[in-house]
Design goal:
globular, seven-stranded mixed sheet, alpha+beta, about 30% helix
Length: about 150
């Protein structure tokens, strides 16, 4: 598998379908009021940078970075196709996002993920990369369905 990470083309039906799969998964695991994924309009926000992962011509995943301030970023829209999970693609995207956050001069990178069992692989990945549980940040509030994590860069 030779996966490349590229700037995402949000205008393709293929990318739209990937985000639809991401939304469907998030809504299947969390109550709607506790889902914080970005729909396509949120991904178009100028504060958000989105990348896609391709295995040859196949779109296999995505990830995003939202600028919260000049020193603080948030990981958004991390998703890998179900058929490609377990191959290290999530870590590859996370490493890319961490590199970009460092290049931007951020001193902190944070994220919100779910507290349910379906999010355990994500929480495990983030913890293995040095993220720690933290209080809600930005506009988030305490929610039993959310886990907030942060990493000093």
């Amino acid at each position: 598998m030779s996966v490349q990470i590229l700037s995402a083309n949000l205008d393709t039906p293929e990318f739209g379908a990937l985000i639809d799969k991401h939304a469907e998964l998030m809504l299947s695991l969390s109550p709607p009021g506790s889902c914080h994924f970005l729909a396509m309009e949120g991904l178009r926000d100028p504060a958000v940078t989105v990348w896609e992962m391709r295995d040859g011509d196949e779109l296999v995943g995505c990830g995003g970075l939202k600028e919260l301030s000049s020193t603080h970023g948030e990981i958004k829209s991390m998703h890998t196709l179900a058929t490609k999970r377990g191959a290290g693609l999530g870590r590859k995207m996370l490493d890319h996002v961490l590199g970009e956050a460092s290049a931007r001069g951020y001193d902190r990178l944070s994220l919100e993920t779910g507290s349910m069992d379906g999010f355990l692989p994500s929480r495990t990945l983030y913890k293995s990369c040095g993220f720690e549980i933290c209080p809600p940040f930005g506009d988030y509030v305490e929610d039993p369905y959310s886990v907030f994590m942060t990493k000093l860069l």
